[in-house]
Amino acid sequence: MIMIEFFSIKTNRREEIVDITKRVEEIVLKSKIKEGLCVVFVPHTTAALTINENADPSVKRDILDKLAKLLPMNDNYAHSEGNSDAHIKSSLIGNSVSLLVKDSVLVLGTWQGILFCEFDGPRERKVIVLVLSNE
Amino acid sequence: MIMIEFFSIKTNRREEIVDITKRVEEIVLKSKIKEGLCVVFVPHTTAALTINENADPSVKRDILDKLAKLLPMNDNYAHSEGNSDAHIKSSLIGNSVSLLVKDSVLVLGTWQGILFCEFDGPRERKVIVLVLSNE
Amino acid sequence: MIMIEFFSIKTNRREEIVDITKRVEEIVLKSKIKEGLCVVFVPHTTAALTINENADPSVKRDILDKLAKLLPMNDNYAHSEGNSDAHIKSSLIGNSVSLLVKDSVLVLGTWQGILFCEFDGPRERKVIVLVLSNE
Lengths: 135, 135, 135
Description:
Three copies of one chain form a homotrimer.
Chain A: E1 2-10, E2 16-19, H1 21-31, E3 36-41, E4 47-53, H2 57-70, H3 84-93, E5 96-102, E6 105-106, E7 112-118, E8 124-132
């Protein structure tokens, strides 16, 4: 069984990390698969996806702050749109995550959440989810 | 249906980003699947794959320039082959990308292309593509 | 065919890279698939997985050293548990790797190994492996 669905999210700041775990879990539940693979993909070049701590919000802040320190917004970039830092961060973090489904739910560690990383907002963004199983 | 194919590319400089979207799309078309997953993998430890903007070439230049600034080629590395920076960049960017196939084509955002990142060229490199579907 | 298995590893230092290629290969062999996909996932937020050189151990040391230079353990982080550097490294390297299986074995380049990256050890860690095929 293969199912591809998408949802939209609205970001509110230039840089922001949004927990989308529940949105992805809903799609996995809807698919009714028991065991399989779930790939989440963003069709954007200035955003990213990662899996990290969703409990203490200061982890999200540290990720954004330290990335901004390593890759400042203004730093003599060749690309003239003012968002080159966002493109580079997108490639460093990556634009997809792969997850396993077991006993009908996403396999996630105690502290893990699926995090959408906005690096050039605020924008309306799209998240695409594939659920794949042999059932 | 599972199909695994590969193709070669020749890089021309030590550091270079090459758009390989068309090569991967040809393999997806050849597979004739309608919906599924496509995983692209490089069997190299000083190269990487990412998905980023393929329109303005200055984005590719900024990615290479800023990575070189964060990880200079010469920086008292323990590894004595002169390419430790390339190994680290490979792990930061990652050696595979996962893509979705829908309506027989790769799902890619308007500005997205599949980019091969050479960090220790010029070399002859190999790219391996898996296409997977339940059809 | 879908198989999900896991194994544990014990790390011995705060930061350490452990080659887990053989452990993953054993699971692929056990699955008896000929062609397919293998996704390896860590359910932790201060560890990561990467594919890189497993021959010269100095590559592993360089990866850890340069990451520590870019993201020092103490650097005015908002997160108060003293391991914010480990969370950020986990998102930069990524918590899963995707591999191809062909002729019943993992497709890996000559120098490639699957490396577990510990950034906040020593700890007991878990690695989850999915093997997926249409056989």
